[in-house]
Structure formats: structure tokens, C-alpha cells
Amino acid sequence: MTAVDLFVSPLGRVEGDLDVRVTIEDGVVTSAWTEAAMFRGFEIILQGKDPQAGLIVTPRICGICGGSHLYKSAYALDTAWRTHLPPNATLVRNIAQACETLQSIPRYFYALFAIDLTNKNYARSPLYAEAVRRFAPYVGASYGPGVVLSAKPVEVYAIFGGQWPHSSFMVPGGVMCAPTLSDVTRSIAILEHWKVNWLEKYWLGCSIERWLENRTWEDVLAWVDENEAQHNSDCGFFIRFCLDVGLDKYGAGVGNFLATGTYFQPDLYENPTIEGRNAALINRSGVYAAGRFSEFDQARVREDVTHSFYEGTEARHPFEGETKPLDPALARAQGKYSFAKSPRYDVPGLGYVPLEAGPLARRIAAGAPGAAAHQDNDPLFLDIMAKKGPSVFVRQLARMHEAPKYFQWVRKWLDQIDLHGSFYTKPTEYAEGKGFGSTEAARGSLSDWIVIEDGKIANYQVVTPTAWNIGPRDAQEKLGPIEQALVGSPIVDQDDPVELGHVARSFDSCLVCTVHAYDGKGRELSKFVINGSV
Amino acid sequence: MSEPVAYVDEMASWSPCALLVVGCGNLLRADDGVGPILIRHLWEGGVPDGVRLVDGGTAGMDVAFQMRGARRVILIDACVSGGEPGTVYRLPGPAVEELPPLSGLHTHSFRWDHALAFARWLLGEAYPQDVTVYLVEAADFTPGGELGPAVRAAMGRVLAMIRDEPAFAPDELTVEFTADGYLRLDAGPATRYFPADAAVVLDKDDEVWLLPLRASSSGGLLLKQRNAAGDRSVLVREALRDNVPVGSRRARWDGGQGALRIRRNANR
Questions:
Q1: Is the pLDDT of residue A10 over 90?
Q2: Which residues, 6+ apart, have CB-to-CB distance to A511 below 8 Å?
Q3: Which of A170, A332, A460, B130 is the residue whose CA sits 20 to 30 A from A25?
Q4: Does the CB of A120 have a partner CB in chain B at under 8 Å?
């Protein structure tokens, strides 16, 4: 038996922010450590500040999910201040959040994920030449339209939010905008353009309605072979390629999932509360662990720092959370190895376990029994999970499945805006309170917990989807979701372990989100010399 | 398809501009925020027509989309090169031309050079002709920190350089006082600043100010068309009590005062 330690950096294509260490035995990954190399200090920045500081600070955590950060920080204040939200405000927030995700779906797929499908390690696949023709960066026939048209949905965000990224137009009590009829019609035209010219033309090869008829894995397979347009669409090709090279065979992960949900039914969330949140959601929340569903309850979240570069021994709920960084050089001696904390969730009957966040978790939650009339009720991915289990491929397919779905929702919400109605109700700024706001960023559940005392922020904790996914081991030595997903991956070429890239990138981990937003900019002027490893 | 950006339809909401100023960096990381903070200062000082400001923050790929339609681009970012904090590097042309390869970009790790490389691919022939990059040597990246004094001073120097850009300079134009006491204005500035063809004159020591009125019925002096091109003349002799600075004079439009300010002195 040969054991080799491989040190691959940077897997997330972020310079130095995440290092992944794996052990490979006989061509298979047997253990993995994800090491977030940089400290995030947002919680410390926010302590003692004006309660609304989170609206300004958290969107700067990330240039990719800035709108999602704003969305959940606004809801954290809404619940803490017991605001009234006019239905229009909820609709505009829904639209903005969904447009950020609609942008992310193709941009992530073509600019990050599909590039790896052109890796030379797949040259033996009969579909390889076609993968290169479509997905080769910058020159692929699908790469250009996919990446360029990804800019369209956030044009809609900018119509409502003034700018994207880094807008601060969502405020407790509503949104700071007064859209006109022409704003709404322009938004519709932009989204229709995106749908016609990318989503249907390149990705699906059929109408979005046809794709959304798929309810089972067999439906999906039949869809691929239904006609030439679908067979040869990027989606049809992607499915065929993944099955051919075995991307449906590894990267399973912990098999337990968390969605905190997002998008609210306007008339059910006019008075946002933590307790009333689940019932008002359109994109449902839910925990799926050991094959059973349970209702999401924020009170069951803990952050473990056993292997993180922080002080403290007990796992704390975010309302009581602490962020006291240690010197990594010294902390390593205590077995700590990452600046990411390890979020864990107390599943009834199972205890504290790691949960995977992301589009697959959302799609599983959408299949849970008991959906209300206004809620997403979609059995497709529960069916695929039952028949195929989680994998790199299934995670990707879940992400792409959301494009037609969210498109339809946004179109509906745009039609529901009452242009003569109110978009903001001035809130009472209570000096004391606790709030919880959450959303589903493109890459998973993103939540803020705020404690307001004496008119100032006493505690603020942000738990990102990347933290759920890249967090290190916990007190029970349970691996984090990405660590677990890497285990078992077959490595064909140790000099070019493309499989590790697939697994890590299938989580669309937003390292800058978790670690901090220094953007991974190497920034040395020496970088200015062309550097092949950039 | 000539360049990738052509995949985006014609109705996309961008307009041509003479100068695009982009500030990159993270506001939450002390000196790293110099780009976005500089953009705020420019914004507060007023944005002339033809200038577009972009707070690029940390969303690099989108900076490239913003570059559509810009004739000239100035990009400001922080850097760490080992130099004295606060050093301003104006990258020489060849350095800006020498961009990193497009392979292996990540949406979360875009830097100014990635943004330019991506923009060149995206915009093809429409890539701006004229790109200047200012990098400010940063020292402190403490979460939540303020700009350090050296970087703050450097930002002031970059601000001054940007405000010296032609696109930022206030509208400079030439007017003429005739010996018989008329002020002559070209058609362009006359219609732009005096749409009602009515004005009042203020004698301000070193300058003569011409302020537009909303309508000629409000009184004041009439701007009369004096040729087919639409040039105007206005009789200012009485308002200046016969102290007319005869000859060509430089003038500029002061948007803050709402006045055309004409220098009495011919030298400058």
C-alpha cells in the first residue's frame, strides 16, 4: 500500500485562502483537511456599532453574494425591531435576491465548474472533444454566451437596488426604491432576453416549462433522449458527460442537509418574526438527516471551534457566539487548523452533526411533505437522491435546476408589484432586541444573528454557506461536509488531481465569503509579472 | 460574433462616457479600501457629464462589464509591493498591456489585472483605448480599520491627478468683448447654459459673471442671435459701467454658482 500526502493549493482558485490537504492511498482519498488560511473579522468590526451597521458591512464581505448578505441582515433587523414590511418590499427583496442567484448559476457553471471538464484527464472519454468545444475557457462555444449573459440578471438588481454589487437599499421596514412602470417593464425585458438567449437556447434546448415537468430521475433521462435539441443542449451534454466520466460516483459528502430557506410570501410576512419565518417561506427551509426530515430551528445551531483558530472549548449558539482569534502558529499545537468555525446542528435523535448547505439541500427541502399552497413543492431531487445518492453531478444538476424555477418566480413577483403602494414602513428602533435573518445565497444558507443592547450591537454573528461546508472537524472529530466529500474520491493522476477540484468546486465554496473579503488579491507588484499559476 | 459582449443585447443599459473611474478593494480592510473611498470623494465633489464612477468593491468580473462604452479608464487599487506605504504607482503603458493569462481565473479572486484581461476578452475591439492604473502601496489590512495616514495622503494625490483629467476640468471656453460693449458667445455654450436667452451680469472685480434667467420675461439682458450659426451677443456695456475688457477672454461654467465666469485678465 502506498500512502502519499498531497498538498493542493489553491483549490478554490482563491490565492491562498483555502488549502486542502488530502491523503491518498492506492489512488483513493482516505482523509482530508480543509484549512481556511485567513481570519475573518466582521463580527469584531460590528460590535458596539449602530444596529444598522450590518447593512453596510456585511454586503462588503463578498463581492459575489453581496445582495444575499444585505437581504439577511435586513431581516435580522426586521425581526429584532418587529417592523412592518409592506408586501411590495417583500416582492422587491425576493426579486433582488433571486436575480443575484440567477446571475451566479451560469457564471459559476461556465467560468468555474465546466472548465474542469476540459481537463486532459478526460481525454479518453468519447465526449471529450465536444466538452472542449463547448466549455474551453474564453473560446468555448457555450462559454462566451454563458459568462457574458450572466451579467443580465444583476442589471435587474441594479434597477431596484441602484447598483450591484454592494448595494445597501434594503433597510429594516422595507426597501429604499420607488420603481416605475418602466423599471418593471425593463426588468421583464432584460430577464426575457436572458431566458431566450441563454437559458432556453444554450442550456435547456427546450422551454423552461418542459424542463420543469421532470419529476423523477427517469424523467430526466428520458428528457435527454427526447429530441436532438435537448440531447445536444449544454444541459443534455452535461448529463451525458457526467455519467460517462463518473462524476455521479463520488463526492457524496455527509449526506445530511440544511436549507434555511428564502423568499417570502408577501402577505404572510408583513410582520417578520423568527417563529413565523418557516411558514412564510416560498423556497422552504428544512433539515434532512439520516433520511428523515425535520423542521429548521435556528435555536439548534452551534458553532464548534475545537479545530478552529479561536479561543473557547464549548460549541456556542450564535446569539452567544464569540470570535476570539488565536495565533495560528501556536493554535496548531492544540490540533487547530482552520480560521473557519464548524457550524453544527442538533438534529432531533442524532445530536450535533455537520450539514451540507447549498442548492442540493434546497432541492431536497423542496421535496419534503407538508408544503403549503404558496410553497415550492418539487419532488425531483428527492427522487434523484433515492436513486443515485448525492455526488458532484447531482449537486451541479440541483444548482442548474433552479435557473428555470427562479426565473418563473421572479416574473411572477414583478407582475405583483403595486406601483402605487408603499415600499417602506418606518420602524421603531428599539434599543434592545434579538434578531435572526437568513436567506439562501446561490451557494447555500446564509444567516445573521444580531443582539442589540443599549441601542448598539452587542453581538453579531454571520454563518455563511461556505462555513457550513468547509468548516473543519468538530469536537467529535467528525469531518466537515467538503472534507467528507473528498474522502473516497478516486485520483487518476496525482500530478493533476482534477477530481479534488470537482468535489471542492461542486460546493461553489466562496472562500472569500468565509475567510474574509480581502478578495484573495495577491496584490504583490510581482504578480504583475505574468504568472502562470494565477 | 465579433466580440463576446455582443451576446448582450442592444438594450443593455450602458452609455458612452469620456472617462470611467473604477475604485477596487475592500472597504472593510483598512488600506485596502482606498479605491472605493476615493470614489466616494469624487462623488461628493460632483460628477461632470461624461464621467462615470464605479465602486468596484471586490466584484472584479463586473468591473469589466462596466467598462463598456468608456473611452478612457482609470482604475485605482491597493497593492503590496514592498515599497513605502502610501507610494503611488502609475503603471506604465506596457505594464498595463502585459496582462495575466485568462486561464484559471476565479470570480472570488479577481484583481485589477484580471479585470482588465477579462475586459479585453469581453469587449474585443471595443476595449477602451486608454487605460491608466494607479496602485497605492498599502500597509494595514486590519478588519474594520481606517485608511492609514500615508495611504490617506496618497489618495489625496491620486484625487488631484484625477481631477486634473480633461473630463473633470470645468468647461473652458472663449468669449469675446467687442469695442462697442457687446459680449459674444458661441452657439454651443449659449444654448447650453442660457436656454432662455436671458441673463444678468455681475461685475466681480477680476471676473465678469453671466447668470442665466429662466425666461426673458423675467427681465435682464437679452442674448440675441447674431448669425446663422446661432452665436449670440449680449449688450453688457451698461452693466459693466463702460469698463469693458475688450478682446478674447477665457471663461468657465461654474455649476455650483450657476454662472459663466469670465476672466477680465487676458493672461489666463
A1: no
A2: A12, A14, A17, A18, A36, A466, A470, A520, B108
A3: A332
A4: no
Quote the cell numbers at residue A17: 485562502
Segment (H or E) for A36: strand A28-36
Distance (Å) from the alpha carbon of B68 to chain A's nearest alpha carbon? 12
Check if the beta carbon of residue A480 is closer than 8 Å to that of residue A342. yes
Cell (9 digits) for A338: 482552520
Q: Strand B182-185's sheet: what is its strand order?
A: B221-222, B198-204, B207-212, B259-263, B247-254, B172-177, B182-185, B232-235, B224-225
Distance from the Cα of B23 to chain A's closest Cα (Å) equals 13
Residue A145 preceded by cis peptide, ω within 30: no
CA-based nearest residue to A445, from A503, A364, A325:
A364
Q: Are B7 and A143 in contact (CB under 8 A)?
A: no
Please tell me which residue of chain B has the smallest CA distance to A145: B7
Cα B5 to the center of its chain, rounded Å? 25
A354 within 8 A of A481, measured Cβ to Cβ:
yes
Q: What does DSSP assign to residue B21?
A: E
Task: Give B59's contacts in chain A (Cβ within 8 Å).
Answer: 63-64, 66, 164-166
The residue in chain B having the minimum alpha-carbon distance to the alpha carbon of residue A534 is B104
Query: If you search the block for the grid coordinates 418606518, which residue do you land on?
Result: A426
Task: Round to whole Å and give the CA distance between A438 and A312.
Answer: 26
C-alpha to C-alpha distance for A299 and A438, rounded to whole angstroms = 13
Instruction: Give dist(CA A298, CA A437) in Å, integer.
Output: 10
**ipTM score of complex:** 0.72
Mean pLDDT of chain B: 83
For helices B34-44 and B149-163, give the axis angle rounded to 10 degrees: 50
Residue B11 to residue A189: CA distance in whole angstroms: 9
> pLDDT tens, A272-307?
999 999 999 999 999 999 999 999 999 999 999 999
CA B259 to chain centre: 19
Residue A496 confidence (pLDDT) above 90: no
Residues of A in contact with B62 (CB under 8 A): 63, 151, 154, 164-165
C-alpha cell of B79? 497593492
| Interface probe with A: pick from B29, B98, B109, most Cβ of A within 10 Å | B109
Q: Do B109 and A521 touch (CB under 8 A)?
A: yes
CB A91 within 8 A of CB B82: no
